[in-house]
Amino acid sequence: MMPTSIAELEASALLLAPEDRAHLADRLLASLSSDSDLDDAWSAEAERRLSELESGSVIGVPIADAIARARNAIK
User: Fold this and answer.
1) Spatial distance between the Cα atoms of 8 and 60, rounded to a whole number of angstroms
2) How open is the CA angle 11-7-32, to the nearest 5 degrees?
3) Are residues 1 and 9 in contact, defined by beta-carbon separation less than 8 angstroms?
4) What is the 3-state secondary structure (H, E, C) of 18-59?
5) Which residues, at least 6 apart from 60, have a Cβ–Cβ distance to it below 8 Å?
6) pLDDT value at residue 36
7) What pLDDT, on a 0 to 100 scale, did the predictor assign at position 10?
8) What local confidence, expressed as pLDDT, does residue 3 receive?
């Protein structure tokens, strides 16, 4: 049965696995954009960054470190 309210929909979505929630969030955000050039540019950027990580030409930063840096930057 489909959730009938935003609260029920949100509660159902939060029960999904993290990967599924990320996929759903991506699909929802994409549905808000009407600029296909911008969407294409973001896709190309994501692919470029993934290639750099996979090739080893850049080293990823642990999420905890990235969050700490962001928090420090806005203090």
Assistant:
1) 36
2) 95
3) no
4) HHHHHHHHHHHHHHHCCCHHHHHHHHHHHHHHHHHHHHCCCC
5) 53
6) 81
7) 94
8) 62
By the 8 A CB rule, do 25 and 17 touch? no
- Does residue 24 contact residue 16 with C-beta atoms inside 8 Å? yes
The rounded average pLDDT for each run of 10 residues, N- to C-terminus, in the chain (75 residues) is 82 94 90 82 93 95 94 93
Residue 65 pLDDT: 95
Reported residue count of the chain is 75
Question: What is the model's pLDDT at position 2?
Answer: 61
Tokens matching residue 13: 């979505």
> How many angstroms separate the CA atoms of 68 and 65, rounded?
5
